[in-house]
Design goal:
This protein is about 35% helix and about 10% strand. The protein is of the alpha+beta class. It folds into 2 domains: about 5-120, no CATH class; about 125-260, no CATH class. The strands form 3 sheets. Strands 1-2 form a two-stranded antiparallel sheet. It has a two-stranded antiparallel ribbon with strand order 3-6. A hairpin with a 5-residue loop joins β4 (about 215-220) and β5 (about 225-230). The two termini are about 35 Å apart. Mean pLDDT is about 85; it is low at about 5-35.
């Protein structure tokens, strides 16, 4: 980062801080209890460390506007210090690691670091298999239709008819955003009724090789389980797609933190 960029980032952080103070003085929603988010949030790709992020995010929503998968939300009143700030709720819609990372490029304040706009720099958190005994692949149950149907409900760009019939067709004239989300649904459809669920591993968006982030392995006592691997960057796609919600993301943690013994799987 150049000295000019550092100076600009510091200026924006200071201006952001003045805006918060102004709200407090005016009797706004921010104050003592709102100094930090109620719970750790999964931030968009490229997010700087949390304390710096809170100071830099100007709540403009530009990252949300350009996200091809509609993965990014803006925090509401319950977010406390995060009100209006960008975050991802992976069970509702994970991040699918777009190669161009338009959210980072669109961020005007440096809350999403423009120097971290490629896959090797994206470290949002880490996935954890918190309920291995509930995994369909472990207990030998097929993928239920409801698990696939649920993702249609998450998909904003399709028509009501496509959502009702659970059938999408990619048109050559579809915008890229529509094409990408329809392609995800088409990939997911191939797993409908699958005898051994491998959705989390097969649809992991880590590129160029998703097996570096997650893979299916034999489980003790029979069946299979997803194995989280070192390249996992916590995008949350597996959390959204898991039929039985046995995977979660711990934001801001690394593979070493979780699987190296500093933080227990929970």
């Amino acid at each position: 980062m150049t000295p000019e960029e550092k100076k600009r980032r510091k200026f924006i952080q200071q201006m952001s801080g003045l805006g918060v103070l102004g709200l407090v003085a005016a009797g706004g929603i921010l104050g003592g209890p709102y100094l930090k988010a109620a719970e750790p949030r999964l931030r968009p790709p490229g997010a700087v460390p949390e304390e710096e992020y809170v100071g830099l995010c100007i709540k403009c929503g530009q990252c949300l506007q350009v996200c091809p998968y509609d993965s990014i939300k803006l925090e509401d009143i319950d977010g406390k210090a995060g009100v209006g700030m960008a975050y991802i709720e992976p069970r509702d819609r994970g991040c699918y690691l777009c190669e161009a990372f338009p959210c980072i490029l669109a961020c005007p304040s440096g809350a999403l670091d423009h120097e971290h706009d490629s896959i090797e720099f994206i470290h949002m958190g880490i996935a954890v298999v918190h309920d291995p005994d509930g995994c369909l692949a472990k207990i030998g149950k097929p993928v239920p239709d409801s698990a696939i149907d649920r993702i249609y409900e998450h998909t904003k760009v399709i028509t009501q008819e496509e959502r009702r019939t659970h059938k999408v067709t990619i048109d050559p004239n579809d915008p890229e955003k529509v094409e990408l989300q329809k392609a995800l649904l088409q990939k997911l459809e191939k797993h409908r009724g699958e005898e051994v669920c491998t959705i989390c591993a097969d649809l992991c968006p880590f590129h160029p090789d998703h097996t570096l982030a997650i893979g299916m392995v034999d489980a003790k006592g029979g069946g299979m389980l997803p194995e989280i691997r070192e390249a996992c960057n916590g995008c949350g796609a597996c959390v959204e797609l898991c039929p039985v919600d046995v995977i979660k993301i711990i934001p801001r943690k690394t593979y070493a933190d979780i699987y190296g013994g500093k933080v227990e799987n929970a």
